[in-house]
Design brief:
single chain, elongated, 16 helices, alpha/beta
């Protein structure tokens, strides 16, 4: 290990040991005064920069305490007060936005003090606690994508208010989903999307700048700091009023530009991990990894999640590249959220990534047993159903894989025997998300021998198996009508044409939409598909037959049959069963089967034992 690395470790250890503070940081607003607290223990001097309407600035000297917190209290009602920090070191002067600030000027350049009470809609309160994580059906969407289609009649295209419109709400309710998961809604880089010209460029926004600030590109007027706050709160209340809960997609694993970020400007060489050569660790693949294991960064992440949960009445958090974060941080977040509402869902990507952190401390699937209140995206069921997208396209159960994998059965059983999961509520069962090819595109790419009708049946098969697997259900918006991104694997900065939620395609595939809605309704009404413990699953589940192209299993009084071959398969049953669903349609009339059942090609069947 080189001397720079040793110095970095010793410095970080000393800062954590000597200067940790539990004080509230950021602007603390009241009608009569505002106190500004900023943690910068290695700085020699700090000033608050006040920006006046005439373009002039005033420097307000701040006082430092023995925990490294610089403070100043300014009297008067500072609602709308614009400021930044000037931080001085021995040979360096930085200017930074307050990392704890709740509002900014356009494109996040300066902090703004706001009276948050004035941004609340009437009767804006938390919903009653959710029943159970395994009852959740999460629907992932992008604010922009969902309403930007030029052929769809939305007044506020690509905006928070667009999602409030009746067309959007009516559709979401008709699906029967329980939670909407919003892709990034915090303030991300203006190099990706300019808030003043939001439709000039496209970006998902996985490049954080101001973590506690709402992104202005989704607001009707990004130049007014409180408009974006009011409109997001209106959207959340509208969804809540219609029985739909809201999950926020958060990206605490990296920032857009580490050298320009407030973490680095306030406390150089502290906020980001360094590798053995003392360069920024890059497990995220985005140039830097946030050092969640450093005590004040951990405090920041926990404080930030708690702020969003309380201020915006959120019902869940999805952690991007959660494996970059550490176990202790995730458990601390879980503890704080439990104090607000234990039913707030925490889910994340528990992939193992090459960040500078001990493997035993990473918030990965391998360490799931250390984080019992946190759920993980189950890439086993995703890959086992449709094939992997990494390095080379492979096939899965629904599209003629070469050999069967036991992990598919383990996934269907809620992860029993996979990693160190403690219960099915730790698995997010999915086959498509915003990442990678859509399911429809991958099925088309994986084989040029399959006809379009066969691909559609494979698509429905994969969706059906994932939705009925034990655990938390997850659907990517448009999955219910064969969403395509025209074979673009990573569309994070592709055009609206590629990324839009295609309402015409939805209408032309309404039968599939209705089937998914019926499947969700069936799961909601059938407790045996939403079991809480592995003990319950062991008692209810029985694998009857499993080959590389056929699976039959019993779950309580229900029988699931899936034939992925191009030929009819015969399966024998010893009791009478009624067909609940076959060929991707729920049956209104009872048809009773007994003896040999002909399971047609690419058919997924749900049967119920007759008493």
């Amino acid at each position: 290990m080189n001397t720079k690395r040793i110095d970095y470790n010793l410095r970080t250890y000393a800062i954590d040991k000597l200067f940790y503070t539990s004080k509230e940081l950021g602007p603390i607003y009241t009608n009569s005064k505002t106190t500004f607290n900023a943690w910068a223990p290695t700085a020699t001097e700090m000033n608050l920069i006040e920006y006046l309407d005439n373009g002039q600035t005033i420097l307000h000297p701040m006082e430092k305490d023995n925990e490294g917190v610089f403070s100043i209290t300014i009297k008067g009602n500072l609602d709308g007060f614009v400021y930044n920090y000037q931080i001085k070191f021995d040979n360096l002067v930085n200017e930074a936005v307050d990392p704890y600030v709740k509002a900014t000027t356009v494109n996040g350049k300066k902090g703004v003090v706001v009276n948050l009470l004035k941004t609340n809609p009437k009767k804006f309160t938390r919903l009653a606690p959710f029943t159970n994580p395994v009852d959740a059906v999460i629907y992932e969407l992008s604010i922009r994508d969902f309403t930007v289609d030029p052929n769809a009649k939305f007044k506020n295209k690509g905006k928070f208010l667009g999602l409030c419109e009746n067309k959007a709400i009516k559709y979401l309710k008709s699906l029967g989903i329980t939670h909407v998961q919003m892709m990034p809604i915090y303030n991300f880089s203006c190099d990706s999307v300019d808030e003043l010209h939001p439709f000039d460029k496209y970006n998902w926004g996985y490049d954080p700048v101001n973590y506690n600030v709402v992104e202005g590109a989704f607001a009707t007027d990004p130049t007014k700091p409180t408009v974006r706050i009011k409109e997001l709160k209106k959207l959340i209340k509208t969804l809540h009023d219609n029985g739909i809960r809201v999950i926020m997609d958060v990206v605490y694993n990296h920032v857009y530009d580490a050298m320009q970020h407030s973490f680095e400007k306030l406390v150089p060489d502290y906020g980001f991990r360094k590798d053995e050569f003392c360069n920024f660790s890059n497990g995220s693949g985005c140039g830097n990894d946030v050092a969640s294991d450093h005590l004040m960064i951990r405090k920041y992440i926990v404080d930030s999640v708690v702020y969003w949960a309380n201020e915006y009445k959120l019902d869940g958090f999805r952690f991007d590249l959660m494996g970059i974060l550490d176990v202790t941080t995730m458990n601390e977040i879980r503890k704080k959220l439990d104090e607000i509402d234990p039913s707030i869902i925490m889910l994340g990507e528990g992939w193992h990534l090459n960040t500078d952190l001990d493997k035993a401390d990473m918030a990965t699937q391998t360490n799931a047993g250390k984080m019992p209140g946190v759920a993980f995206f189950n890439d086993d069921i995703r890959n086992d159903l449709k094939g992997s997208t990494y390095e080379q396209i492979t096939t899965g159960f629904v599209n003629s894989w070469k050999s069967k994998k036991d992990s598919l059965v383990k996934s269907i059983m809620g992860g029993l025997g996979l990693y160190s999961y403690t219960s099915p509520n730790q698995l997010v069962q999915y086959v498509e998300s915003h990442d990678d090819y859509t399911l429809f595109d991958q099925l088309g790419i994986s084989s040029d021998k399959n006809k379009i009708n066969e691909i559609k049946k494979m698509h429905k098969m994969a969706t059906s198996i994932a939705l009925l697997a034990q655990g938390i259900s997850f659907i990517h918006s448009g999955q219910e009508f064969y969403r395509t991104k025209y074979n673009v694997e990573n569309s994070y900065k592709s055009s609206d044409k590629i990324n839009k939620f295609d309402w015409s395609r939805m209408k032309s595939n309404k039968k599939y939409v209705n089937y998914v809605s019926d499947l969700i309704k069936f799961k909601k009404n059938t407790p045996v598909f939403r079991l809480n413990t592995y003990e319950e699953i062991k008692k209810a589940f029985k694998l009857l037959k499993y080959s590389k192209s056929f699976i039959a299993y019993q779950l309580g009084e229900y029988l699931i049959l899936a034939n992925t071959s191009k030929k009819t398969k015969v399966f024998n049953i010893s009791s009478k069963y009624a067909i609940i669903s076959s060929n991707y349609k729920f049956n209104d009339e009872k048809k009773i089967l007994n003896g040999n059942i002909n399971v047609t090609s690419l058919n997924f069947m749900i049967l119920k034992k007759e008493k």
